[in-house]
Amino acid sequence: MVFGAEGCNQTHWKKISEKGCEHLQSSFRSKLQKATGLSFDEWNGYWSEMTTFRNKYVAHRELNYDKPVPDFSNAITVALFYDQWIREIIAPDFLEEPPLEEFLIKLKSSVAPLIEKL
After folding, report:
1. Burial class, 86, CB count within 10 angstroms (exposed 0-12 / middle 13-18 / buried 19+)
2. Alpha-carbon distance 71 to 79, whole Å?
3. Residue 1 lies in a domain
4. 4 domain-assigned
5. pLDDT tens digits, 37-92
6. What's the average model confidence in pLDDT over 94-105?
7. How far apart, in whole angstroms, are the C-alpha atoms of residue 41 and residue 61?
8. Which structural domain, as residue segments, surrounds residue 111?
9. Helix axes 21-36, 40-53, angle to 10 degrees
10. What local confidence, expressed as pLDDT, does residue 76 receive?
11. What residues contact 55, with CB distance under 8 A and at least 6 apart?
12. Residue 5 domain-assigned (yes or no)
């Protein structure tokens, strides 16, 4: 998990391993910056915007929340990056499901004809 609370969530990326924790966090941040092209400050702003949207509209639905939906382009890049990164971290172990990028390609191809009809 990238866009959630790290405090109580055992699936947050910062809690993947107690061993080499600082190295993993440093690796994640530097590779994430390369994947997204966002500076540290830009990333923090984007993370804050997405996490606020998640907390106030998606996960916990505040009735008076009226902010615009954030741009999800970077969120998709982050999700694809995270999936690839975690697969590298756990190797030689592996995840049963195919890489998220493969799923996204299949999803786009199945949705494209529907969008064209609009």
Report:
1. middle
2. 14
3. no
4. no
5. 999 999 999 999 999 999 999 988 889 999 999 999 999 999 999 999 989 988 89
6. 94
7. 27
8. 13-117
9. 90
10. 95
11. 5
12. no
Q: How many structural domains does the chain have?
A: 1
Could you give the residue ranges of the DSSP H alpha helices within the chain?
A: 21-36, 40-53, 73-90, 100-117
The Cβ-side half-sphere exposure at 88, using a 13 Å CA radius, reads 10
Helix (H, G, I), strand (E, B) or coil at 97: coil
Q: Give pTM, 2 decimals.
A: 0.76
- Quick check: 1 pLDDT over 60? no
8 found inside a domain:
no
CB atoms within 10 A of CB 67: 10
Tokens of 104: 């996204």
Residue 5, both tokens: 């609370």
Which amino acid makes up residue 54?
R
